[in-house]
Design goal:
242 residues; Alpha-Beta Plaits; globular; alpha+beta; four-stranded antiparallel sheet
Length: 242
């Protein structure tokens, strides 16, 4: 099912210094990633693509330790979820794991400029992000480039446009996160993702792996193993498909 490009929450999570890296992964594997799917399907989750970056070699602390894009039937569907006990409980579990610098917002349409920490949609049409190939680029600002110039250089690349089925971007003062949806495996080299990577001092590119959860909320289960740098395109039956 296709989702409008403005109906996605773009998450950038920074690990709290109070929790070490093994515990961070353990929380993601046993709580956050599976519960995001199992506790939110029934309130309108349409697609969920988390990526875990904590502990990657040479990754600066100014680059998120986890990213995710979460698609909903609409922005109002997301807001309505907070009327439910399940969503309010799920949300409260994040506080001890992430710093206050973490957050998620809905995107606006890209019109040539990148404001710090504001997500943008790059393709103005609905798409189904659970299907196709999703590539994710995460990277850091070069030290010799000022934050405003960093975002200006990235915006110049994005202004050339894309032939992808979908695109999402967010740039802070020190980081870039970018997702690209293609209906088939894209040919390597020469694309928007590669041009953006050329503007970064450190970067990590990963293709999201289709992943299913064969478990319920009340079953004994050790969790979902997640490797450093891995991106998951969670596969599930949406409530509109039942």
């Amino acid at each position: 099912m296709k989702t409008d490009p403005d109906a996605v929450r773009v998450w950038r999570g920074f690990r709290s210094p109070e929790i070490d890296l093994p515990a961070f992964y353990q929380r993601l594997e046993t709580v956050f990633v599976p519960s995001t799917v199992l506790m939110q399907i029934d309130i309108g989750l349409q697609a969920y693509i988390p990526t875990v970056l904590g502990g990657l070699p040479e990754k600066p602390d100014t680059v998120p330790d986890e990213t995710a894009i979460l698609f909903w039937e609409s922005q109002q569907t997301y807001r309505d979820g907070f009327r439910t006990l399940a969503v309010r409980t799920y949300t409260l579990t994040h506080g001890a794991v992430y710093t206050p610098a973490s957050g998620a917002e809905f995107p606006v349409g890209f019109s040539g400029e990148l404001q710090a920490n504001q997500p943008y949609s790059l393709v103005d049409r609905a798409a189904d992000w659970m299907q196709g190939t999703v590539r994710h680029l995460v990277g850091a600002r070069p030290e010799e480039v000022e934050p405003e110039d960093f975002r200006s250089h990235l915006a110049a690349v994005l202004a050339k446009g894309t032939e992808a089925e979908g695109g999402i971007v967010c740039a802070g003062d020190d980081y870039l996160v970018y997702w690209q949806l293609d209906l088939a495996q894209p040919a390597p080299g020469g694309g928007q993702l590669e041009e953006l990577a050329g503007q970064l001092a450190w970067s990590h590119t990963v293709t999201a792996e289709p992943t299913e959860l064969d478990v319920g909320l009340w079953e004994e289960w050790p969790g979902l193993p997640i490797e450093q740098g891995q991106s998951l395109n969670m596969q599930f039956e949406r409530r509109s498909e039942r």
